[in-house]
Amino acid sequence: MKRAIASMLLVTMMTVSLPASATDIVEDDTTSSRPTVYAMGLDAGLVRPVGLAATVIGVGLFVATLPFSLLGGNVKESAKTLVGDPARLTFYRCLGCTTGQDNENTTAHELHDDAQ
């Protein structure tokens, strides 16, 4: 039983960390704010499905650890880490963008909206 739990925790940790590392790999040109077709393909075919799985696993872990989070007083932090970060990476980031490119694009859109 201990081996199964340890294996599940290891797979979960690897799944949660994979989307962040994969978005760093797809970045070909650090000066460009536009993703390449290869970055978009890798993002749509690999990173987003893994991010979705990480979000679902994070929800399960959040629910399982909720009593301990309530006792420790860190429910918001655990929700952000286990559910919010993988969900943001999966659903809110532009297709093929790294985190830096997405931040740059978001800032550009906010400046454009403020100018109107």
From TrEMBL:
Record's keyword annotation contains Transmembrane: yes
Ranges annotated as spanning the membrane: 46-71
Signal sequence extent: 1-22
Keywords, comma-separated and alphabetical: Membrane, Signal, Transmembrane, Transmembrane helix
Name this polypeptide is given: Multidrug transporter
Organism: Aquirhabdus parva
Upper taxonomic lineage: Bacteria, Pseudomonadati, Pseudomonadota, Gammaproteobacteria, Moraxellales
